[in-house]
Amino acid sequence: MAGEKRLHVVTGKGGTGKSTVAAALALGLAAQGRTVLLCEVEGRQGIAQLFDVPPLPYEERQVAATDDGAVYALAIDAEEALLEYLAMFYRLGRAGKALDRFGVIDFATTIAPGVRDVLLTGKVYEAVRRRDEAGAYTYDAVVLDAPPTGRITRFLNVNEEVAGLAKVGPVRRQADSIMTMMRSQRTAVHLVTLLEEMPVQETMDAINDLNAATLGVGHVIVNQVLPSPLDDAAAERVASGALTPAAVAKSLARVEDELGPSAAEGLLLEGHAHVARQRLQSHQRAVLTEAGAPVVELPHLEDGVDLGGLYDLGGRLVEGGVR
Amino acid sequence: MSRSRTRSRQVGGSTTADAATVLDVDAIIDDPTIEIVVCCGAGGVGKTTTSAALALRAAERGRKVCVLTIDPARRLAQSLGLTALDNVPRPVAGAGADGGSLDAMMLDMKRTFDEVVVAHASPEKAAQILGNPFYVALSSSFAGTQEYMAMEKLGQLHAEAVADGADGRRWDLIVVDTPPSRSALDFLDAPERLSSLLDGRLIRLLLAPARGPARLFSAGFGMITSALNKVLGAQVLTDVQTFVAAFDTLFGGFRQRAEATFALLQDQGTAFLVIASPEPDAMREASYFVERLSQDAMPLAGLVVNRMTVPAFALDGDDAHGAARRLRGRTRPTADDLVVASLLEVHARAERVAERERRVVKGFAAAHPRVRRVELASLATDVHDLDGLAEVGERLAAASSRV
């Protein structure tokens, strides 16, 4: 499966639906027969809500199975990750507990600068590289529901900072390995956005930051796209005022006799707002294409997001080249 | 029977039209005893716009307002005159009436941190801290710092506001837009975290590495330092120790001020507004905020639900669809008929969305019946000038009084 990504980092401004997109992508890849690990790092239990399962412990659990693939999920917790890390790399069984008593764990995971992000990215790194006894990768791909766009470069780049602080030693070596993975051709950062000014602006800023940090931008994923019932000509007739309230009332009267003149005016008012928003969206779409990254659009799911909807979105993502 | 029950519930418990649970924003910003308004909520719900609109409206109604924004959209920042990043409030030209005024600032976390260091440490010590690699990382790029600095800045602004005595006060209302934290109320945790850090044995351990601490800290100590050394490397540990030692005197002041700001937030002179949009995720966050504020005894004023879909006239979604179908199915539909059919579909969609949003808001209201709230129709375009902000403020107030 050369060329396919091993780590998909999914970010987006708050409210754009990045967790939904991350889950959909995991399912889409699983539907292609891959075994996927879906990670979240912000303690929000978003995966559990999307898949309608009880809150996830710090443990990989299967949340979906396809004919040949599966999705496992993990809510990465910084404290647990630290204890695990200490136990694994330093065999600090007792000392690990002592560290906890001294408040070191608490200090490291909540107060000390950046340690939290180091631990979270460290765990992702471990999952991406893990192999089974036969030497094959445990997971064909890891999908990370990452922190929001405003923090993403800092988050992915945190090990660069660590490398600046720790000049030698095991922490430095680990930090360097993680940065190598983050910058690898097989890692892609996808940015989820809506066709609104602020999310698009943040997406453009994030792409610049990511490029500057030599982190690979994957796809721009435009979420919740609503096709308009009005074609361009119809939109123009509404916007220009060529379609008058009297004309609307006349058409309405042909099929609904109980609607007063206020309905015609209301309908036009809604039409104006709709066309204005639609044009704003076209403008934002044009802005996004300037970034040069491939764009995939996902439709708005009218009845909310259920498992069927997630598979549908996942299929569109994979078809759109996110794989 | 079930039918009449349904109807009476719709009348009694429907959305905004219930005087007892309506949030009156004008009453808050007109109340001279309210000195701080904090807007919190998930990202992407219009928090910054709401903060700025409230601040502007308060200034127009005669208050001397300072608005502290964290990360405004570029054009909104420009409209507030926030082009220079100098970390001090600047007057917003053309805002304010009846003796009221509006100052605005955008938080620069690194600069705020540097200023605290310079203000509270001796020059040599300040230089030592500012040059320490850990300080540089902590103050400029790591998560969490923004929350601490927002608290610090709010404390500073409030101190500055009251410094000149009751009459000559520079500001009598501070409106704060909170950082888009991953865990929403991180800034409330700042004082407690600082305390637990300072009272923790770790700091004492880091501060006293050379003073034969094994006697002080029991046998576990040797294991700790060797573990830290092993994990971090000796050079990192030394840097951290230098940093903590240099920072030691500052920490106490930090904690004191953070605790003072925390107490200020609990005071009746503060009003918290939770901002949300009618999406399940945003409302879940709003519930979390409401619960967390009440746990911490913070004065919650109410909930602002932005971006509600409000159809412009009453026609059921199914009926609109039916009408559209009949128009299209006419033997020779006119060009107008076809456009009107499309408009009816736009309306039908709005009805469906509005219905779903009402359900989401109702869920919140059922869980928190005493929380006052106000609902705002979504805007067709983004807000990026003072007129737009004034209109948002107007609509907030109008929605409050529409009972």
Automatic annotation (TrEMBL), chain A:
Domain ArsA/GET3 Anion-transporting ATPase-like: 8-182
Lineage: Bacteria, Bacillati, Actinomycetota, Actinomycetes, Propionibacteriales
Pfam families found in the cross-reference section: ArsA_ATPase
Domain of life: Bacteria
Database matches in Gene3D superfamilies: P-loop containing nucleotide triphosphate hydrolases
SUPFAM superfamilies for this protein: P-loop containing nucleoside triphosphate hydrolases (SSF52540)
Protein name: ArsA-related P-loop ATPase
Automatic annotation (TrEMBL), chain B:
Database matches in Gene3D superfamilies: P-loop containing nucleotide triphosphate hydrolases (3.40.50.300)
Annotated InterPro entries: ArsA/GET3_ATPase-like (IPR025723), ATPase_ArsA/GET3 (IPR016300), P-loop_NTPase (IPR027417)
Any Pfam family the entry gives: ArsA_ATPase
Molecular function (Gene Ontology), one example: ATP hydrolysis activity
Domain ArsA/GET3 Anion-transporting ATPase-like: 35-309
Lineage top rank: taxon: Bacteria
PANTHER family noted in UniProt: ANION TRANSPORTER ATPASE-RELATED, ARSENICAL PUMP-DRIVING ATPASE ARSENITE-TRANSLOCATING ATPASE
Name this protein carries in UniProt: ArsA family ATPase
Organism the protein comes from: Mumia zhuanghuii
